[in-house]
């Protein structure tokens, strides 16, 4: 308990911004706890950390943490974060986005940040819907589910954020849930230490906009669904497609070492300076 209290007072703007705006039972509070616990395990100084967020429920996290923070426009969190990292590569830049923020309006930014292998940590909160802006369907809303913009059922097929990041070239990709909080701590810590573009997809179903509209129960029932549907990648490797039907994997999906964009960019700058000096 003493350790938790220390983290709260060290890393949260507890005397300025609380109580928070999230619905009772929302997984964003669990994610916030995982984030500060993971940071607490690192040797990063507070002034070395920048937390960038976009618009949406998860975007409020940047308001509550006591680091250098930037609350940006919808879908553009990664572009702001890219500029910060290029301007000062020594900073530890963490980007927090929702599924709609990262993969709908921000989809191209997400793909190309992964392709470039920028040295950033992206945490994408997947709640299967646009929670704060009215319950519209998002790129991760399951086929047939209901939303304010899908009154007769969603006719678009969802894609997997984690698998998209893998195929786009991210250095590290992991998936966790807000039910498996201890594992989520570990995944975020690993992502923070990773050199290159690291992505942690966090399954955190919105019981207010998604669960209620689709008659899936409240926060407790939706957490129970995460427990029942999640399979660790190591166990999944020995399971058949039939056994994995209606399941999703959690854990580290990929961890690979590739050239880092900021380092490659520095080489280009040095080459340009050398070439310029020879023309004088």
Automatic annotation (TrEMBL):
UniProt cross-references to InterPro entries, sorted A to Z: 2-oxoacid:Fd_oxidoreductase, THDP-binding, TPP_enzyme_TPP-bd
Q: Could you state a single Gene Ontology molecular function term?
A: 2-oxoglutarate synthase activity
Q: Which Gene3D superfamilies does the entry mention?
A: 3.40.50.970
Enzyme category, top tier: oxidoreductase
Which CDD domains does the record match to this protein?
A: TPP_OGFOR (cd03375)
Listed name of the protein:
2-oxoglutarate ferredoxin oxidoreductase, beta subunit
Query: Keywords on this record?
Result: Oxidoreductase
Q: Domain Thiamine pyrophosphate enzyme TPP-binding spans what residues?
A: 62-202
Q: What is its EC number?
A: 1.2.7.3
Q: Which organism is it from?
A: Syntrophobacter fumaroxidans (strain DSM 10017 / MPOB)
One BP term from GO: cellular respiration
